[in-house]
Design a protein that fits this description.
Elements: H1 6-22, H2 29-39, H3 44-57, H4 64-72, H5 75-92, E1 98-101, H6 104-113, H7 117-123, H8 129-145, H9 157-164, E2 172-176, H10 179-193, H11 195-201, E3 206-210
Parallel strand pairs: 1-2, 2-3
Organism: Halodesulfovibrio aestuarii
Protein name: DUF6475 domain-containing protein
InterPro entries: DUF6475
């Protein structure tokens, strides 16, 4: 959602006011802003559907965390889905190419919890999927609650090698999950790290979309 989008604000305010009336609450402007910014990373229509679900799913006025769970599930539910996404990327893409995930928390788990994309891929074997999923879900749940995120690509072996030799190059970056969201996370990483990422990615990076 975008606070500067009048239609988004109007739809959101109407949904919040409807919930407030059912719970004898007053939808004050500070309250609306607080809920809006807590939920702004979601599509406005998804938020409105969660408001409707909350009417029958909660006995008391729902907190933002409850609305988020109605939209995407519990951290454990999301972690299970993300673990499947990562495992598929390990099998289909591998450690040679760089990757950009559509979920910054997933990228953070790989980068900080498993030592990076190359290390994760090199250490995973087919018979270790069960243990990988267990470790991933545990780490993801903790990172999600603390809002630990990583934006930008996770470097593959080719990018690391070229960057170590300071060689400009064309890099194929696999977009994992929702291609649009992965591209946005990639762009956010470039913006945060500036020329460092530019060197890593090269001048004419190609984007390879890989579905979840």
């Amino acid at each position: 959602m975008d606070w500067n989008n009048e239609e988004h604000r109007k739809k959101f305010a109407e949904g919040m006011k409807g919930m407030c009336e059912l719970h004898n609450r007053v939808a004050s402007k500070p309250m609306l802003k607080m809920y809006f910014f807590a939920l702004e990373r979601f599509d406005v229509e998804d938020v409105l559907r969660a408001f409707i679900a909350a009417v029958s799913a909660t006995k008391f006025f729902p907190k933002p965390a409850e609305i988020i769970e109605l939209i995407q599930g519990s951290p454990e539910d999301v972690a299970e889905v993300e673990a499947s996404k990562v495992w598929e990327a390990i099998c289909r893409v591998g450690g040679h190419s760089s990757v950009a995930f559509d979920n910054p928390t997933t990228a953070a788990v790989i980068e900080y919890g498993f030592g990076g994309w190359v290390k994760l891929c090199s250490e995973m074997k087919a018979d270790e999927e069960k243990w990988f999923r267990k470790d991933f879900v545990k780490t993801y749940s903790a990172f999600s609650r603390q809002n630990v995120q990583h934006f930008g690509e996770l470097a593959g072996r080719a990018a690391i090698s070229n960057n170590g030799h300071c060689k400009p190059h064309d890099e194929t970056i696999a977009l994992i999950g929702n291609a649009g969201k992965a591209q946005a996370a990639l762009a956010a990483g470039k913006q945060q790290q500036g020329c460092q990422i530019t060197m890593l990615v090269g001048d004419t990076a190609k984007q390879l979309a890989v579905g979840a």
